[in-house]
């Protein structure tokens, strides 16, 4: 028996080997890309950092969470003419978001609830249960408070900014389900803007551009990065066509920035 045949090497032509190498590389790349795409879909939340601030984005419901690390400004224009973007650029604002609900009377817009800008009070207290709290920002301590209507004394104060909003959807990191959440525009699915405050001093502007209920908004915010540590409280500002947001540093998140609105909240650069 000729044993030498058992040890012969069967060498393939070079072109055949090269074709196999190319084929294996193609299969590997295709498999990796498919895996990476699936992983990205499982992790919809992303973030962008600039100058020490991180803006969070949830692509699934188009939710933007922008930090406000400076004093907020209340802006009131009874007969507005300039767009959100124009006002932001002229006043050197980093962020501008729509303010609270308003109504029009004799051609002029007025706040739908309490509104106090350092002693200037164009808006009176509303007993509408949907506007359940007063948002108070102390200009000296830079602390936020969400004051329930039943504990609020409506008087002129000069060192604070105050406006009426609601309902609260998260209080001290606990999702709340109050009767105010079941009013029209609150119970249904709408695009929304909200104000979040963490540990009394760190505020966040939140916009959600996919229509959601307040219950879903609360769950998504609580499960986001800002809901993981510390004490978080969140209140609704607006829903529907009045929702608008402008960012000078992250224009990809701008929404309805060309809209003309009478009540705005801004943050300087």
Briefly note the structural class of the backbone.
alpha+beta
Q: Order of strands across the widest beta sheet?
A: 1-2-3-16-15-17-13-14
What is the helical fraction, as a range of percent?
10-25%
Apparent shape:
globular
Beta content = 35-45%
The count of DSSP E runs of length 2 or more, i.e. the number of strands, is 19
Whole-angstrom Rg: 27 Å
Mean pLDDT reading = 83
Euclidean distance between termini CA atoms = 90 Å
Question: Your description of this structure?
Answer:
With 269 residues, the protein is an alpha+beta fold. The chain starts with 13 loop residues before the first helix and ends with a strand.
Structure keywords:
269 residues; 39% strand; globular; eight-stranded antiparallel beta sheet; alpha+beta; five-stranded antiparallel beta sheet; disordered N terminus
Which SSEs are present, and which pair or pack?
Layout: H1 14-42, E1 45-50, E2 53-58, E3 63-68, E4 72-76, H2 84-90, E5 93-98, E6 102-105, E7 108-111, E8 115-117, E9 120-123, E10 133-138, E11 144-148, E12 160-165, E13 168-171, E14 174-175, E15 190-198, E16 202-212, H3 214-222, E17 232-239, E18 245-247, E19 263-268
Antiparallel strand pairs: 1-2, 2-3, 3-16, 4-19, 5-18, 5-19, 6-7, 8-9, 8-12, 10-11, 10-12, 13-14, 13-17, 15-16, 15-17
Summarize the structure.
This protein has helices at residues 14-42, 84-90, 214-222; strands at residues 45-50, 53-58, 63-68, 72-76, 93-98, 102-105, 108-111, 115-117, 120-123, 133-138, 144-148, 160-165, 168-171, 174-175, 190-198, 202-212, 232-239, 245-247, 263-268.
């Amino acid at each position: 028996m000729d044993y030498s045949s058992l040890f012969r090497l069967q060498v393939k032509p070079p072109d055949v080997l090269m074709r196999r190498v190319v084929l294996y590389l193609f299969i590997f790349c295709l498999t990796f890309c498919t895996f990476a795409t699936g992983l990205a879909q499982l992790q919809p939340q992303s973030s962008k950092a600039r100058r020490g601030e991180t803006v969070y984005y949830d692509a699934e419901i188009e939710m933007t969470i922008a930090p406000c690390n400076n004093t907020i400004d209340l802006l009131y224009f009874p007969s507005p003419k300039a767009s959100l973007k124009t006002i932001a650029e002229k006043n050197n604002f980093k962020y501008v978001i729509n303010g609270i609900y308003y109504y029009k009377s004799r051609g002029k817009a007025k706040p739908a609830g309490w509104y106090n800008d350092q002693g200037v009070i164009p808006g009176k207290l509303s007993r509408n249960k949907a506007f359940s709290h007063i948002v108070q920002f102390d200009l000296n301590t830079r602390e936020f408070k969400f004051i329930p209507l039943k504990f609020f004394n409506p008087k002129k104060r000069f060192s604070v900014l105050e406006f009426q909003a609601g309902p609260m959807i998260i209080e001290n990191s606990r999702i709340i389900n109050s009767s105010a959440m079941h009013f029209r525009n609150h119970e249904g699915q709408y695009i929304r803007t909200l104000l979040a405050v963490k540990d009394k001093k760190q505020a966040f502007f939140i916009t959600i551009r996919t229509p959601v209920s307040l219950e879903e908004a609360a769950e998504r915010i609580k499960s986001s990065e800002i809901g993981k540590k510390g004490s978080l409280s969140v209140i609704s500002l607006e829903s529907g066509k009045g929702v608008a947001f402008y960012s000078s540093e992250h224009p990809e998140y701008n929404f309805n920035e060309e809209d003309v609105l009478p009540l705005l909240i801004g943050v300087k650069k």
